[in-house]
Design goal:
This protein is mainly alpha-helical. It has helices spanning about 10-65, 75-80, 85-95, 110-120; strands at about 70, 100-105, 105-110. The longest helix is centred in the first third of the chain and has 57 residues, at about 10-65.
Amino acid sequence: MPRKEFFPSNEDELERYLAMEEMSARIQAELNGKLSAVLARMADMQKTFEQTLGPLAISVQEIEELKRKVNLTPEEVERVYGLNAATLANQRSKGTGPPYIKAGGKVLYPQRELQKYFHEREILTNSD
């Protein structure tokens, strides 16, 4: 808001005007200091947020992308379904576990077979 021109008519008005200007400058400096502190705190919070939740958001996005794939590697199965890749290798050697495809030395698990495998092992409980 633009200030009105002020021309003090006597010494008392001039002193009051200067006192008000000085008070205004102190208040402005105090507000600027508080604003700087708030902005610094917000920057710290943003950094903490990005460090904490950023990897989680990326992880969720990666898992959603993996869920859209037709076939998954054992490591991808572990990320999406939580079934350890070493456990899958152990199950393959025993002829158990979910059905898989072996092509050119690469092991792949069809998503539809994984879903079927987990669905067949679902245990329903009685809820009272």
